Amino acid sequence: MSGPPLTVAVLGTGVMGGPMARNTARAGLAVRAWNRTSERARELESDGATAVERPEDAVDGADVALTMLADAPATLDVAEAILPALGPDAIWVQAGTIGIDPIGRCIELAQRNGTTILDAPVLGTAKPAQDGALTVLASGDADAIDRCEPIFRAIGQRTVRPGPAGNGTRLKLAVNAWVLALTQGTAEAVALGKGLGVSLDQMIEALDGSPTDAPYFRLKAKLMDDGEYPVSFSLRLAAKDAALMADAAEEAGVDLPLIRAVARRLAEGVEAGYGEEDMAATYRLSAPGGPG
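Request: output the structure for the sequence above.
Response:
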């Protein structure tokens, strides 16, 4: 890319947004970081980012504003603050997973403000975010995606272009339905094995090399077997995403009893106090002997 490096405002520097901002700064782009908990943004200063106190300050004069916030209300709240402060040529990259109706609202707000928006959620959890190995689902104007490629290369290993803005969110929900089905399926398979006196090692030996063997099963099953749940993607956020999928399915007129059941189960895990653990902690509800 010719010309000076992009100036990127990263709004939301938590488990995912923090590593994304860090990798963007390490790639030589000018990064301004903002987070509701300001300490999370200041942690990035050692990597060359500039921490700011207000989202409006982050986007003033920026080429790109990237939002990576927990949910739709937080995203829409920040959008109301930043859109008037964005320059006429700036691009809003909305990277959080917020659902069909909210991304539609974001697109409307951007159009009303004359701002180009990319709906670009990412596939991956904490470790891929730290490694710059996410998959970016960049939907929207092709020229805007081209302009943002230095950011997408910094944070991801691949950029998928599913079409007009809004399609990135649709693709993310469909793919995450599979991920959450795998997570809950793993929890119940491990719990059943434990209840029947079957060890995880025996299960993995039986699956080894078969079409149904999966690295993801091995990864999450080990957390469940060890009873340790360091956060890669929190149960609370997984429950939020599952509810978005269930809502999207209802609006689309498709019947997804599995996703409805997973959404209920993950919500139960949050209510039981496991929301800030990894989503693999859904296993706690199924484990022999009950939650624990």
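Residues 107 and 285 are 39 Å apart (CA to CA).
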